[in-house]
UniProtKB/TrEMBL annotation:
InterPro entries from the UniProt entry: RutC-like_sf, YjgF/YER057c/UK114
Name the record gives this protein: Endoribonuclease L-PSP
Top-level lineage group: Bacteria
Family: Belongs to the RutC family.
SUPFAM superfamilies (UniProt xref): YjgF-like
Organism: Pseudomonas fildesensis
GO cellular component, one term: cytosol
Xref: PANTHER family: 2-IMINOBUTANOATE/2-IMINOPROPANOATE DEAMINASE RIDA (PTHR11803), PROTEIN HMF1-RELATED (PTHR11803:SF58)
Gene Ontology molecular functions: deaminase activity
Length: 134
């Protein structure tokens, strides 16, 4: 890729299923592509309960951040696509467990359907430059 755009790739999260990267960084920011609840070994989980799917998607997100040398406290913005807004409370509880007291900006967007019949997809933006304390 051109310029200062760096591709971030880890075997600890699901491999991209199309023409995109797990994440890219540029100018002190990491952009994480939407993470479906596909296990790192490629195993699909669309038949699993929502909480299992959400945990897998969050695990993928954190594995990609880790590959970039980052953690949950570096998240700036998270967008969550959820099939069935009734899953929002369960997601919020899991999300709080994964992020602890860190509260990045977030949007939970109800959608009618996601690829392969999944119930959740998570994308995020994180910082690489630690000039501003959280």
């Amino acid at each position: 890729m051109a310029g200062n755009l760096n591709v971030i790739q880890t075997a600890n999260a699901a491999a991209p299923g199309g023409h995109y990267s797990q994440a890219v960084s540029h100018g002190g920011v990491v952009y994480v592509s939407g993470q479906l609840p596909v296990r790192a070994n490629g195993e699909h989980s669309a038949d699993q309960p929502f909480e299992v799917q959400a945990s897998i998607a969050l695990d993928n997100l954190l594995a990609i951040l880790s590959e970039a040398g980052l953690g949950p406290r570096d998240l700036l913005k998270v967008t969550v696509y959820v099939v069935g807004i009734e899953h929002w409370p369960a997601f919020d509880q899991l999300y709080a467990h994964y992020l602890g007291d860190h509260r990045p900006a977030r949007a939970v967007v109800p959608v009618p359907v996601l690829h392969h019949g999944y119930l959740i997809e998570i994308e995020a933006v994180a910082r690489t430059a630690h000039k501003e304390p959280l």
